[in-house]
Design goal:
The structure holds 2 protein chains of 2 kinds. By secondary structure, chain A is α/β, with parallel strands linked by helices. Chain A is built from 9 helices and 10 strands. The longest helix of chain A has 16 residues. Classes of the chains: A alpha/beta, B mainly alpha.
Chain lengths: 258, 224
């Protein structure tokens, strides 16, 4: 029933001699939430950046709805409008207030009517609980608020797919939740999303499918429960173990004294 | 109270002559500012280009103009050009020329710095929203650059105004030269004139530059 929205075929990305992504292939169906996890430096963020053509690639191709995304394509700005991206460090425009950050691209790039865009922006802001911060500048907002604004900014372009690049990695713990809740709500709405994250419980809750990347390759691709309960590869098991802690009991050792 | 020699200012047209001298200094600096601001913006844009030849050429120009003391540049343009090339430049024209060259170099470097201080992520964030190169420059990069640039360039303007006091060395009669003339002419009748007259010169420069500095400070606070 669902159609294929994004296809990555034999993607190769190198920085000089160093191969960061080695013939990666996967497909994303419309409405699917794909979570990409793996140790740091495994190429997860690079993968997202390649999908949005922020990085030149050295091999393979990326297709959005059958159209190739390439840095040389004249249609690249058009294709990028169809993919929303949210970055680790928010990357809001510091000279614009929250509302202008959100409405700039819909008005200037998509040439939509200001009144209509503002209305949509305000209702999106309301949904993430930030309607009263619409006229604040980024420097007046907390990290979690900035990130929610950045998500609304991406949503207001009405993208077909959303890329989230470690969007909670630079947030204080108490702000992580408010951002993850927004992502969970989006997944419930049936948005097509690619999420790179280090939040394992969240990954399990939100994912339709998990990609485990290591050393520039897809090591495992599975449903979340299968992956987290019974990872197939030793590398995945080792990776998941780093997120669990043994309970340390403070036992009194009787009769032992010096 | 010691005799500070202020009375010289009220002799004849002395005060009006000082103001006239200030007018010459301002004319030179403001014409130079008007020339060097747009040229500096262009130079700054050129300097951010990756092409090695444009980089080297603009760098050479910048270093040459900045390393040379302004006085040497003035001598070079005024005395050097006359002897070697037979150009009969007026002192004021030579001054405007030198100050424009200098201002362009300084402004160019400010523009380059301001452009390069916009983080790469701002370009990526704009690209991810589907903005093309021109839109990114116009809506994202330019406003941020201008905000950084305005206080810096206003400071450059005050530096240019103050540095015009050097042009008396090539015979341009600006405010400091007029002050010297007044002091010299009254050496017998008011031997203490130096203090009062130079203090007046100081106050005149202050009256011109202080509001400009205030403006820069105000804009800095509002935009940074």
């Amino acid at each position: 029933m669902s159609r294929e929205l994004l296809a990555v075929e034999n993607l190769v990305k190198r920085y000089g001699e160093n191969t960061v992504l080695d013939k990666i292939s996967f497909r994303v169906q419309e409405g699917e939430t794909l979570v990409i996890i793996g140790p740091s430096g495994c190429g997860k963020s690079t993968l997202l950046r390649c999908i949005n053509a922020l990085e030149p690639i050295q091999g393979g191709r990326i297709l959005l709805d059958g159209q190739e995304i390439s840095r040389d394509a004249k249609s690249l700005p058009k294709l990028r409008q169809r993919i929303g991206m949210v970055f680790q460090n928010y990357e809001l425009f510091p000279h614009l207030n929250a509302l202008d950050n959100i409405t700039l691209a819909p008005i200037k790039v998509q040439k939509r009517k200001r009144a209509e865009v503002v209305e949509e922006a305000m209702s999106l802001l309301e949904r993430v609980g930030l309607k009263d911060r619409a006229y604040d500048f980024p420097r007046q907002l907390s990290g979690g608020q900035k990130q929610r604004i950045a998500i609304v900014r991406a949503l207001c372009m009405r993208p077909e797919a959303l890329l989230f690049d470690e969007v909670t990695a630079s947030l204080d713990p108490e702000m992580v939740r408010e951002v993850l809740d927004v992502l969970l709500a989006l997944a419930e709405q049936g948005r097509t999303m690619l999420i790179v994250t280090h939040e394992m419980q969240f990954a399990r809750a939100v994912a339709d499918r998990v990609l485990f990347l290591d050393g520039g390759k897809i090591v495992e691709e599975a449903a979340p429960d299968a992956f987290f309960d019974a990872p197939q590869s030793e590398r995945a098991r080792k990776f998941l173990r780093t997120f669990t802690f043994e309970t340390v009991k403070h036992q009194k050792i009787g009769g032992y004294s010096k | 109270m010691p005799d500070l020699g202020f009375e010289v200012l009220w002799k004849g047209k002395n005060f009006a002559r000082l103001l006239g001298g200030l007018g010459v200094a301002l004319r030179i600096s403001l014409v130079a500012v008007a020339v060097s601001m747009p040229l500096g913006v262009l130079l700054g844009l050129v300097m951010t280009r990756k092409h090695p030849a444009t980089r080297i050429l603009s760098r050479l120009y910048l270093e040459f103009v900045r390393i040379m003391p302004q006085l040497v540049l003035l001598f070079l343009a005024y005395f050097g050009a006359t002897r070697s090339f037979g150009w009969d430049l007026s002192g004021e024209f030579a001054s405007i020329l030198v100050f424009s060259l200098w201002g362009t170099a300084e402004m160019g470097d400010l523009v380059r710095g301001a452009l390069e201080s916009v983080p790469r992520h701002q370009y990526e964030s704009a690209a991810a929203l589907g903005l093309d190169g021109a839109q990114t420059f116009r809506y994202i990069i330019l406003p941020q650059t201008v905000r950084r640039l305005i206080p810096l360039s206003i400071n450059l303007v005050t530096r240019m105004i103050k540095t015009t006091s050097l042009v008396l060395m090539i015979g341009v009669v600006e405010v400091l030269k007029v002050a010297q003339q007044i002091i010299e002419a009254n050496r017998m009748s008011s031997p203490n004139a130096a203090f009062g007259v130079y203090l007046t010169v100081f106050l005149l420069y202050f009256a011109v530059c202080w509001p400009i500095s205030l403006l820069a400070g105000h804009l800095e606070k509002r935009w940074l």
